[in-house]
Amino acid sequence: MQNNLHELHKIDPQEEDLLAEVLEGLGRSQKKLPSKLFYDQRGSELFDQICKLEEYYLTRTEMWIMNRYIDEISELIGERCLLIELGSGSSTKVRLLLDHLVDPVGYIPVDISSEHLIKSSDSLAADYPGVKVIPVYADYTQPFDFPDISLDYSKKVVYYPGSTIGNFTPRYAAHFMSSIAERFGSGSGLLIGIDLRKDRDTLEAAYNDGHGVTAAFNLNILRRLNRELEADFDLGQWKHHAFYNDDEGRIEMHLVSMKDQRVSANGTRIKLKRDETILTEYSYKYITEEFENLLSNSFELVKVWTDRDEKFSIQYLTAR
Ligand code: AVI
User: Fold this and answer.
1) Separation of CA 298 from chain center
2) Using one digit for the tens of pLDDT, what is the confidence trace for 49-69?
3) Which atom belonging to ligand 1 lies closest to the Cα atom of 281?
4) pTM (two decimals)
């Protein structure tokens, strides 16, 4: 059967909103930038490199769990599902699911990196001719138009791997989970990857790799501001800093100003002191019960799988 790759459903990123968000963040006493800015073309490529790093245990541990329990996972998901992946990136992980699920009818990758999305959708469509691939170019944290689908599927299953939920504060994560349950409806499935709390050394090494890829990924956000929001950050005057905040159970990534400096973004001037930081990302690490508490009434936890060292978990949930 010839795969019908649908036209890209494009939501124009609101540039003005982005500028306002950036300026608001840089105006705070703890300056901050939205993590979604990481994922331009270069940032997405750097993130793919991070996933292959020795120190970054998350990806390979998650894939180990997936491989080990794929039969159980696919049995729980059932036949003829419509699979939706939030933040699909290069759509590598989903291949294992598509290889093992029974007659999946469609796959909807949603991502904000359009080049990544087009490339990976094309190759998935070629490799899985029985699955309708419908890429959606959108910021999935914002409301977006879901494509009209004339497919006969048994249920929608959202795939949200990589512990990306950890990049939200727990409060926002709880809100996000309820919005997924509401949007996709009662009975929909959610297969989600969640990084677990562990010793500081392992955690800090994962965000301070020896090859400096994470540092380049972090600094790339400033390069992007320079290019897209007419900013003039001197990248030589900033350094990457990531540490585990034990009280909050999260990794924090910052960019540290190496001197007193002034920068401007779209004509707005910003003053920074030496050693002042811009917060670019939180990456929360959960204890399973803690995560369950976030669900309140949105989802019911069906099954949790972990690796032997309990570094990472995959959970299957159904919307109430
Ligand atoms: C996408 N997200 C789950 C990654 C993480 O581990 O929080 C992003 C990342 N930041 C630095 N390295 C990877």
Assistant:
1) 20
2) 999 999 999 999 999 999 999
3) 10
4) 0.93
